[in-house]
Amino acid sequence: MVDRTAHWQAVYTTKAENEVSWFQENPATSLRLIADANASADSAIIDIGGGASRLVDALLAQGFRSLAVLDVSAAALEAAKTRLGPASADVEWIVADVTKWRPAKSYDIWHDRAAFHFLTEAADREAYVDRLKSAIAPGGQVIIGTFAPDGPQKCSGLVVQRYDATSLAEALGSSFELIDNLADAHRTPWGAIQHFQFSRFRRI
Ligand SMILES: C[S@@+](CC[C@H](N)C(=O)[O-])C[C@H]1O[C@@H](n2cnc3c(N)ncnc32)[C@H](O)[C@@H]1O
Questions:
Q1: What is the CB < 6 Å shell around ligand 1?
Q2: pLDDT digits (tens, 9 = 90+) for 142-168
Q3: Residue 2: what pLDDT?
Q4: How far is the CA of 6 from the centre of ligand 1 (A)?
């Protein structure tokens, strides 16, 4: 089994921001789905496996005031903090493996782009859903982007589990109602197209 911390620390300490396939200058699909979730400036939003993503920059620029980013790689979060400068002090940074994390508070919106799909063991997926249930109260919303069934079989050299809306809803279980799903074609920094799907759920 892969040592997740070692793998992701190696990625973020050896590659520049735009040398990873998942880099996005503008995380437009995530921003649209967060807007569709009726987020207000005070909504508590957590980006799971946020890495060094620019989503947090864009949300701060839109006036969101209660943001958290969780990642297993401290180096990824350091890169994001350095880029943001003093504005990083307004964000909660959590270095943790989501499958082992103990949420200390409740969030209104859970966002995950390309982290859940690395959980290829049922026990890890169950641990993830446990954390999701304890971090998101009924009425809260969950946005998860994964590789689609016609997306790549690997990311960052690791095998991934691909989903459509139905299989993702099954993985989350009956505490989550699917409210939206869309296909997203991501262009990597070197011009390859990767098919993602994004689903939005409401916690019942
Ligand atoms: C493909 S990258 C996507 C990063 C970011 N979400 C984005 O869209 O740019 C996957 C991220 O998930 C993180 N990750 C992978 N497994 C994780 C886990 N079990 N717990 C927390 N973070 C994890 C990695 O460190 C990495 O930053």
A1: 4, 8, 22, 49-51, 53, 71-73, 76, 97-99, 113-115, 118, 155
A2: 999 999 999 999 999 999 999 999 999
A3: 81
A4: 13
Token readout for 158 is 């690791």
- What spacing in Å lies between the alpha carbon of 51 and ligand 1's midpoint? 5
**Residue type (1 letter), 44:** A
Distance 43 CA to ligand 1 centre (A): 22
159 to each of 120, 121, 151, how far by Cα in Å?
Answer: 8, 11, 12
For 13-81, the three-class secondary structure string (H helix, E strand, C coil) is HHCCHHHCCCCCCCCHHHHHHHHHCCCCCCCEEEEECCCCCCHHHHHHHCCCCEEEEEECCHHHHHHHH
